[in-house]
Design goal:
The chain has 166 residues and is of the alpha+beta class. 30% of the residues lie in helices and 40% in strands. The chain starts with a strand and ends in a 10-residue tail after the last helix. Pfam families: SecB.
């Protein structure tokens, strides 16, 4: 990064800069619509619960090279075709991104930022599930670089851009 001393910049003014300003929870929700009966179903369970993860992200330009990136995770667990719980978190971050090529800028938004936000979202989901009275659940790591590369490949091939659902 260029250094600023007494109002003067030392180094190239157009040097690429990536700065994390803040990480925060934008929205969080937990529902156990079939409690307390579902706890008995879980205790008597003979087959594994079905767990579905939906994942998405969005980026919003805020001006002055600032971007809000929001990683959304929705985890739905069903037991015997009944919803045990639904946990959702929108983990957000404010990023300063300047001086990058268009391709590098898109890659930062599409893979670097979600990689940075994911551990926070994973922790929040795990805490919600456990505090909701269910066995701990740890989301496996997600390769956002591979997801971004696949999305870029599909867009370059004229295909429809996929949503980041797992």
């Amino acid at each position: 990064m260029a250094e600023v001393t007494n109002g003067q910049t030392n180094g190239p003014a157009n040097q690429p800069q990536l700065m994390l300003q803040k990480i925060y929870v934008k929205d969080v929700s937990f529902e156990a619509p079939n409690a307390p009966q579902i706890f008995q179903d879980v205790a008597e369970l003979t087959e594994a619960p079905q767990v579905q993860l939906n994942l998405s992200q969005r980026a919003t330009g805020l001006g002055n090279d600032m971007y809000e990136v929001v990683l959304s995770l929705t985890l739905t667990c069903t037991v015997n075709e009944r919803t045990a719980y639904l946990a959702e978190v929108h983990q957000a971050g404010l990023f300063g991104i300047a001086g990058f090529s268009e391709a590098d800028h898109a890659s930062i938004i599409g893979s670097y930022c979600p990689n940075l936000l994911f551990p926070y979202a994973r922790h929040t989901i795990s805490t919600l599930v456990q505090e909701g009275g269910f066995p701990p659940f740890l989301l496996q790591p997600i390769n956002f670089e591979a997801l971004y590369a696949e999305q870029a490949r599909r867009m370059a091939g004229g295909g429809e851009a996929p949503t980041l659902n797992s």
